[in-house]
Amino acid sequence: MQEMRHKLFLLAVVAGPVLFLDQLTKQVVARLLFLHESVPVIPKFFSFTYIRNPGAAFGVFAEQADGFRTLFFLAVSLIAIVLLLYFLLKVDSRDPVSLVALALLFGGAVGNLLDRIRLGEVIDFLDFYFDSYHWPAFNVADSAITIGISLLVLDSFIHRPARSDSDQAPVERMKGSG
Q1: What pTM value is reported for the model?
Q2: CA 99 to chain centroid
Q3: Which residue in 21, 46, 98, 117 has the fewest CB atoms around it within 10 Å?
Q4: 66 catalytic per annotation
């Protein structure tokens, strides 16, 4: 029970601010900028650009019919949130990197889900570019998701379990026996 409380506390401490900051920044952008308006912050590198993304990352599925797209993304988001909670319950409470990563993913997923429920699309506004190279606009929720995934991948490389002799490829075992 103590372990569960610890995990839920960490979820609230990490995902709560992500969700709050995500929703606050989206509201500010929607109130201060016109749709498709862009305000340079660092010329030729970074702008606040108010767009609405009906698709997924990089506009995937943006061309699909509204009804299908909305139901698809709501279902995928809800499944992802349930899976994240499941993994959060299963991960060892002494594994802070995985716990924080899952909480970041959870906060980001909920932030974008709230947009889809309210608007049928997601507000994006962080716009990075250099010369003619342009990264698709994103938001705080997307950033949290990217950081969470990156932490999980990085942690999986750092904490790889050592391979036993029986796990080694046959060639490696042969080298060690001769």
Answers
A1: 0.85
A2: 14
A3: 117
A4: no
CA-wise closest residue to 21 among 143, 113, 127: 143
Q: How many CB atoms lie within 10 A of CB 81?
A: 15
CA pair distance 5, 156, nearest whole angstrom: 25
| β-bridge mates for residue 40, sequence order | 47
Helices assigned H by DSSP within the chain = 2-32, 66-90, 96-119, 140-158, 170-177
Choosing from 22, 115, 127, 142, the catalytic residue is 142
pLDDT, tens digit (0-9, with 9 covering 90-100), for 2-26: 899 999 999 999 999 999 999 999 9
Catalytic residue among 95, 124, 131, 165: 124
- The residue among 3, 2, 161 whose CA lies nearest residue 90 is 3
Q: Shortest CA distance to 108 belongs to which of 73, 72, 139?
A: 139
| Residue 66, helix vs strand vs coil | helix
Dihedral angle of Cα 68, 74, 75, 77, to the nearest 10 degrees: 140
Q: Which residues pair with 138 in a beta bridge?
A: 126
| Residue 124 appears among annotated catalytic residues | yes
> Is the CB of residue 39 less than 8 Å from the CB of residue 33?
yes
**Distance (Å, whole) CA 42 – CA 19:** 26
